[in-house]
Amino acid sequence: MAYTNFYNGNQMPTIGLGVFRVENDDTAKEAVKHAIVSGYRSIDAAYIYGNESKVGEGIAEGIKDANIKREDLFITSKLWIDDYGQENVSDAYHKSLNLLGLDYLDLYLMHWPGTNETLLLETWASLESLYNQGLVKNIGVSNFNIKHLEMLLNHAQIKPVINQVEFHPNLIQTELRTYLKEQNIKMESWSPLMNGEILSNPVIKNIAQEINKSPAQVIIRWNIDHDVITIPKSITPSRIEENLNVYDFKLTHDQIEQIDALNQDKRIGPDPAEFNG
Ligand SMILES: NC(=O)C1=CN([C@@H]2O[C@H](COP(=O)(O)OP(=O)(O)OC[C@H]3O[C@@H](n4cnc5c(N)ncnc54)[C@H](OP(=O)(O)O)[C@@H]3O)[C@@H](O)[C@H]2O)C=CC1
Ligand SMILES: O=C1CO[C@H](CO)[C@@H](O)[C@@H]1O
């Protein structure tokens, strides 16, 4: 497993398993367990996904079956907008911990900026408080655009280590990526495979054929080559394994440029400037 360094010296696995739209039953448990046994060390969960309890069971069984320790894993969850505000954050954090069966998270993210600046800043201050109390190892944000980040950084005591945003070959986020690099904040990509849609793109398929890898592996490698942490979701054991198996090759400069050229600034999810849950 390869790791990405945060500005604070902590490290996060470059690839993790996403669990959005995974049923809160044995599907979630088995996918997470299979991922851990196959070598994954990072899981991207969220309260709003409604599956933290079965994800937690998968984590517990994965630790046992892979014969590793909790500290070997990097578990992320996200604070949903309904729980923003100073009076709610600590309860929401502990609610996620209880569901996951954990006593700390490696990373807790504000899931969306929302449209209320005061509430955003108050909520970030509450995350800082969790961090300062040693209850969570790292704090970060998700779906923040440059405007949200500038506002946050004007007030924050602690910088987010990460911004998790939509990123795939049709939305390459050049401006935001440059800004995050300048700020020393890591980018993490959600829906890296465009929820499967981009896998049949002829350019991607061509490159995959050229190097004898799958389209998903090409895109995941393209994330790594752009220094973007990524969390492809799969509940299919062979795909879970395939998506981690990208460390024995690199894309050429030309192949990276071909994929970059697929950009259309096209989102499959909401625009953070407007979305409010
Ligand atoms: N912060 C945020 O606002 C958001 C965060 N996320 C996070 O990002 C994660 C990933 O994004 P997500 O939207 O789930 O979509 P992805 O882009 O990861 O695509 C998942 C889809 O691709 C399929 N797939 C996965 N691997 C392969 C493969 N090797 N070959 C062929 N098909 C494959 C999966 O099928 P199958 O499962 O059937 O194998 C599934 O249908 C989420 O699970 C979540 O953790 C997502 C959205 C928003
Ligand atoms: O991570 C995500 C998936 O679930 C949420 C809604 O159900 C989305 O808003 C969010 O972006």
From TrEMBL:
Positions in coiled-coil regions: none
Keyword hit for tRNA processing: no
Site (Lowers pKa of active site Tyr): 78
Pfam families in the record: Aldo_ket_red (PF00248)
EC number: 1.-.-.-
Key word Transmembrane helix present: no
NADP-dependent oxidoreductase domain span: 15-263
Protein name per its UniProtKB record: Aldo keto reductase
Species name: Mammaliicoccus stepanovicii
